[in-house]
Specification:
D-amino Acid Aminotransferase, Chain A, domain 1; eight-stranded antiparallel sheet; nine-stranded mixed sheet; globular; 2 domains; alpha+beta; D-amino Acid Aminotransferase, Chain A, domain 2
Amino acid sequence: MKRARDMHPSAAQHVQEVRMAVKAEGVAKAGEGRRREQAQYWVYFDGEFKRYGDARLGLMTHALHYGTGVFEGLRAYWNAEHEQLFILKPREHYERMHRSARVLMLKIPLSVDELCAITVELVRKNGFRQDSYIRPIAFKSSEEIGVRLHNLNDSFAIYVTPFGSYVDIERGIRCMVSSWRRIDDNVAPARAKITGIYVNSALAKTEAMENGFDEAIMLSQDGHVCEGSAENLFIVRANRVFTPPAQDNILEGITRENVIELLRTELGVEVVERSIDRSELYVADEVFLCGTGAQIAPVIEVDHRAIGSGQVGPIAARLQALYFDIVRGRNPKYADWLTPVY
């Protein structure tokens, strides 16, 4: 059989079109398989456990149109040696979710203890034996038109799905400073995980990826470094670590708090919370991002400028190794960070 490059142009084009069609068909079949599997996942929705395929919302749901919801993201890590799935800091996530709900005048009809217990039960019902992601969401569920927060019904749900790495945390990632500025506290409070706010992140992330980068770094309205599209940010200069403070419109990240604790107590590194200039990214010895999704993500390039040696730096590498030992239950000193499922 002739290779495509040896064929007449029209014949080669036809072969290419056939190959693309076959590939598209394969992708479609795989997607349909995933949807059928997902439909059988257990979810928690307004007081009941039900299948994902049975949990439905109307097209007029308020949160769909106006972003009037708050959410959390929790990771559960599988330890094959002990055949155990560990949920990382569920209490801290649900405490923050209650705080976010107050900002948006939402009522979550469950205490933190109840939310933790329901989450363990839900994950156990799904029976996942791999790294997973847990997404609780509270939202305005009235099916009516009207921009407001008051006099609306509230709903609450949790779903779970298998989940691997959000970005490439092994080799490091390439970032660009986004042209989109981070939303300001007096516009919509960035310290709360409000669904509608994440359009700001989506704009920055897509801009970065369409320009050939892995992730965006966003600046605050006054031009200081803020965070990634969905991650907190740290830089290393002369063996000191700096991270933007809460007043620079960052999300008050739980992983960020974990990282600060580990840097100080385990790595013996000084951590300073202060505003960071854009140019400090370029001259930093290391830059890394962190978050529930991103975990510990070293940055090896910003705006086509290599960070340090252009490789994963020593502090980020040590931190990453320590972090994964902890979250997979291999470091008994931090057993209280974890809630076992099985």
